[in-house]
Write a structure and sequence with these properties.
heterodimer; A: alpha/beta; Rossmann fold; 40% helix; B: alpha/beta; Beta Polymerase, domain 2; five-stranded mixed β-sheet; 3 helices; 31% strand; elongated
Chain lengths: 149, 159
């Protein structure tokens, strides 16, 4: 395991991006950070800038004005980066699927690693999703090593 | 000034302009007015009667456009909505921004989403829509059709 990846998995710093959501998913994400759910025990901290982040957490149905900005944020992010889509809107635009302002879902714009469904998803679901993503990467690395041997 | 005095003043002053007067409830009144005397009525309600301009709202129906200008008298708890009706192919009306500065952005929004032309507006340009949105396409009109060929309108699930 490279030192970069090891550091990423030990303490993933999360950048929270709202792409035109109703703010309910955002409130649930903030709930994760409170002492009740305490996502920091997995080393997760909200980062102020995408340049410090290891995880890009997206909420909201992607609207037209947001598309170029999402692309720019994804390009600015240090690689490797994990993209997590939170909420029904990010997954498939939910009830805004026929909206004139939401032409394509998020995973047609940037590659998405983890999908967390729900409207809004519970904080437990968000934590479970991110932990699963970390375990998935760990398993991938192990498999790759074994294949090399 | 109480509720009765306000209503009588408006009724007396704009006899020819008022098409319909709906006394919906103690807190709410709708007044249908002619589009050509909108500015006079708004000026009287805003400047002389000292009402507060809440917002304006626009809708496109089968008959045409309907714009409502909502004014509230906060000490009475009364809301007066001035209702103006326009035909779809004659979507032009006097702007009230010269009288009420606060109406500037809501008129810009109605201009881009419904395609209503506000005559006399000082700065009638886009407010909310994306930069690549085509000219002459108004998303909140009843006859709006999808123009973007790259858009995806299914959830990726085949039956």
């Amino acid at each position: 395991m490279s030192i970069k990846l090891k550091a990423l998995l030990k303490s993933p710093w999360v950048f929270h991006l709202s792409t035109g959501s109703c703010n309910n998913c955002d409130i649930e994400i903030l709930d994760c950070l409170t002492p009740r759910f305490d996502v920091e025990r997995f080393g997760m901290v909200l980062a102020g800038s995408i340049r410090h982040a290891d995880v890009l957490l997206c909420t909201g149905s992607v609207n037209r004005k947001c598309i170029p900005r999402i692309k720019k944020i994804y390009e600015d992010a240090p690689k490797p980066i994990l993209v997590v889509a939170v909420g029904e809107c990010s997954l498939s635009r939910g009830l805004f699927i026929h909206s004139y302002n939401c032409p394509v879902p998020l995973d047609k714009i940037i590659p998405v690693d983890v999908y967390i469904p729900g409207c809004p998803p519970k904080p437990e679901a968000i934590i479970a999703g991110v932990v699963k993503a970390i375990e998935k990467i760990k398993a991938n690395i192990k498999n790759n090593k074994q294949m090399k041997k | 000034m109480n509720r009765e005095e306000i209503l009588n003043n408006i009724k007396d002053r704009f006899k020819d302009c008022i098409k319909n007067f709906v006394d919906k409830s103690p807190k709410r009144i709708y007044i249908d007015i002619e589009p050509k005397c909108l500015r006079d009525v708004v000026c009287y309600v805003f400047k002389d009667l000292q009402a507060r301009f809440n917002t304006a709202s626009g809708i496109h129906t089968r008959v045409g456009f309907e714009i409502l200008y909502h004014f509230s008298f906060d000490n009475l708890g009364l809301i007066i909505s001035l209702r103006v009706k326009l035909e779809t192919d004659k979507a032009r009306i006097d702007s009230i921004t010269p009288i009420i500065k606060g109406a500037e952005w809501i008129e810009r929004e109605m201009h881009e989403l419904l395609g209503i032309d506000f005559v006399g507006h000082p700065n009638l340009k886009r407010l909310l829509l994306a930069e690549d949105w085509p000219e002459g396409v108004y998303p909140l009109r009843a006859d709006y059709k999808e123009w973007d060929k790259n858009s995806i309108r299914d959830r990726g699930v085949k039956e």
